[in-house]
Structures are given as C-alpha cells and as structure tokens.
Amino acid sequence: MDLGIAGKWALVGGASKGLGFGCAQALAREGVNVVLVARGAPALQAAVEQLQADPAKPAAAQVLQVAADITTPEGRAAVFAVRRDFDIVVTNAGGPPPGDFREWDREAWIKAVDANMLTPIELIKSQVDGMVARGFGRIVNITSSSVKAPIDILGLSNGARSGLTGFVAGVARTKKLAAANVTINNLLPGSFDTDRIKATLDGAAKKTGKSRDEVLAARVATIPAGRLGTPAEFGAACAFLCSMQASYITGQNLLTDGGAYPGTH
C-alpha cells in the first residue's frame, strides 16, 4: 500500500534506537524526509548511517540528525534551527525510571511530567497551526500500555503519560484540527524488545528477588502472541497512523501489545 506521504517532513524523537528508530525507519522507507533527534550523538550517528544505507529507503528521502535533549527549550530550539515546520511529528522521550513511589521526590515527578507530558504538548503547540494551514498533519505520541493497565513500579510513567492522554483526547477532537486533516493519536506499546524493557525487567527482578530471565519468561507468558514485539512492526503501525489513509483516525489510543491487555476498551 502506498501511504501517500513521500516527500513529507517528519520529526522523530528518541530516534537513535528502539521504538523511535523503528518509526524513523518505517517513515524513511515510505519516502518521508526524516529528522532524527536523540541525546546520544554516537548512537544517533549510527542510526542515521543505517537509514541512509537502507536499500528499502528511496534515494530522494533525506535523513538528518540533531543530537539534543528535546525535553529542554534549548533542545527544541536546536531542532527548529535545522527545520521549523514538519508535516509529521512522532513524540518520544525515554520513560522515567521504575521504582517505589515512596522514593520519588517532587523533582522526580516534575522531570517525568516535563519529559513525557509537557514536551509533547510543546511540540504539538509548535506545529499544529502550520499543519492546519497546509491541510495536512500527523502527530503520533509514543506513550505506553500502562496508560490503560498501570504497572505498579512505573508510577512516574503512569502519571505523566496519563496526563498527556487526557490532553490529547480534548485537543485532537477540536474541529479546527480534525476538519483540516490534522490528526493526533497515541501509540501504546506493550512489551517490546528494546533497552527500555531491560530496565523494567531489572526493576521487577530487584523487587521480587528473581532473575531477569525469570521475570521475562513470566512477562511473555502473559502475552497471547507468545513473544516480545519488534521495533519494526511498531514502526509500521506508526507509519500507518501518519498515512493519508488514516485521516479519519484521531484522538485514539492504539494498543500494540500482542493481545496482553484483557479489556474491551
């Protein structure tokens, strides 16, 4: 299927590896010009080189990079110095660390909210008016399946991402955006084979006294698909939400969790 987005410009956060890289790769393969943002310059450079050498990427699709912390005003300014307007924005910042809520002070909460709620809102605010003027816009926020099924050791993430979910539910449904072909959706990953899950598994192992392998086996046993997800298939879901065909999908929370969530809504 031709997603109809070749030649568009996309900004992808946390794009040097994991789910962010999966999204950047899927978009680049659709002919989208992609600006990758991540804090770690060496990993980011390696990601860009991998995309540039990808035989599935059309030669005309540009791949640019900005090594910056997009959760800071300075980081966002560095991104906008490279390019100001985007047709597609994929917000993604590293999740807060797991732990016991009794150990988190105000600073930990503010940092989590700033990275996983306020930064996506700032990016949305910076782009939607231009998208409306051009008659096309796609914003995809990578959140977490914990928004629908909270995980006890991920309280910082549960709280911050739920706040973003509530904000998106309102703003995505404004007629000014939806009628102008500007959509905002959230992608909720379950257990994927990324560095993030390793940290989560380590946190659970520390809490339970079990090994990481034991914790992983128990996690996989709860997934009807019987495995962890891959960044590539997550990226494909992201690319579809960014497509022309997805213009009638907005304000939604799309679970990609192998069937792990047992609810009906």
TrEMBL record:
InterPro entries: NAD(P)-bd_dom_sf, SDR, SDR_fam
Superkingdom of the organism of origin: Bacteria
Gene3D superfamilies: NAD(P)-binding Rossmann-like Domain
Family the UniProt entry places it in: Belongs to the short-chain dehydrogenases/reductases (SDR) family.
Name of protein: SDR family oxidoreductase
Annotated source species: Ramlibacter pinisoli
